[in-house]
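Per-record layout

source: Dactylosporangium darangshiense
name: ABC transporter ATP-binding protein
length: 286
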Amino acid sequence: MLELLDITKVYKGQKRAVDGLTLRLGPGLVGLLGPNGAGKSSLLRIAATVTRPTSGSVRFDGADAVARPDGLRRALGYLPQDFGVYPNLTAVEFLAYLAAVKGLSARSARSRIDELLELVNLAHAARRPLGGYSGGMLRRVGIAQTLLADPRVVIVDEPTAGLDPEERVRFRNLLSDLAADRLVLLSTHIVGDVESVASRIAVVKGGRVRLDGPPEELLRGVAGHVWEATVPPEAAAALQQRLLTTRSVRTPAGVRLRVLATSRPLADAVPVAPDLEDAYVGAVHR
Ligand SMILES: Nc1ncnc2c1ncn2[C@@H]1O[C@H](COP(=O)(O)OP(=O)(O)OP(=O)(O)O)[C@@H](O)[C@H]1O
């Protein structure tokens, strides 16, 4: 459906933000996971036809979406990282304004907006000015906005930034529902945002894909390589320097280190089942 082929983005006088990256995407929730500065936003802006790649191509249903972006734009809902609202408008007024910008007729926009505010659980606040909304509510307005034209592709850039844990869960579930019959491409630097909901995760660093596949496959990749050992607190810092540590927790018995290693890293280390955080850290530090 959406193909990002050998994409490179070089900003003026800057290093490469995206470096020969290829992703072929179909329906489902795809998590683009990577540390700050990995190139996620740059890639999503290119996928959303907001920015052109320096080289490489974007194809939507086989057609060139760089030279002729209109087809993709019609099928697309995009929530940028820096999504802003007009604080004096109510949710209904703001969405009606955006619907008009998108060229939707006032009548179809009206019923669609009611539907969407219901979907994102904002019907109760529909007629309140956005200036009084919480961060989580504004993110949900942002999501509602992406869905105005019933898009086949939804691209959301770090939508959970600034949300509290409860809002995060609600948001994750909403995106997961949306992905039942469309492509939802979501960027984040938090493994928990995509764990349990993504059908596919691509780990990006330095503008390249370091790891890509369904979560189960990512877990299989580190199976047998994750270990835990409890070490004396005074030894922990040096060991963390030497070993690839995915977690360290202070316990009454000492510091419990979780370590990625192909063979037993410490005499009393025991093998443990991997989780996605292990796979992510492994991919980013490889
Ligand atoms: N408009 C721009 N002009 C110059 N450099 C840019 C621009 N946008 C991004 N960069 C640089 O490109 C690199 C990748 O940035 P990008 O925002 O795509 O990464 P990211 O993974 O989304 O990170 P973050 O989560 O911090 O937004 C960074 O080094 C960034 O400083």
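summary: The chain is about 35% helix and 30% strand. Residues 11, 14, 17, 34, 36-42, 189 surround adenosine-5'-triphosphate (CB under 6 Å).
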